[in-house]
Write a structure and sequence with these properties.
alpha+beta; 40% strand; 21% helix
């Protein structure tokens, strides 16, 4: 799951821009299907990340983990929630955030 987190952070920085310009998001749910073992000699791993859906306060992020030979090792889906750090509650996605995600939506 650490590989997924690293790929997702890099992906969200690409979508929203890094640093303080990016609004806070939290993982609400993460499901992973491990299809084959990921061993020390499996790498370098390639992780494909896409947006599976965009809602009012949340969005889905799909992940595919491929080993160095291109074999599918795992598939995962994360539900991300836009989060207001002051109120500690979900917040609506900003138009700018939605625009950054739309480019990566798969059907």
């Amino acid at each position: 799951t650490e590989y997924l987190q690293e790929a997702r952070v890099h992906f969200l920085d690409e979508c929203f821009g890094g640093g303080s310009s990016r609004g806070a998001t939290v993982v609400r749910k993460l499901t992973v299907d491990f299809l084959q073992p990921i061993l020390d000699d499996s790498g370098p791993l390639h992780i494909e990340v896409v947006v599976s859906r965009i809602g009012r306060t949340s969005f889905g992020v799909g992940h595919r983990v491929l080993d160095a030979a291109g074999a599918l090792c795992a598939e995962a889906e994360a539900v991300m929630v836009a989060f207001d750090l002051d109120s500690q509650n979900a917040r609506p996605l900003a138009d700018k955030e939605k625009a950054g995600l739309i480019e990566y939506v798969t059907t």
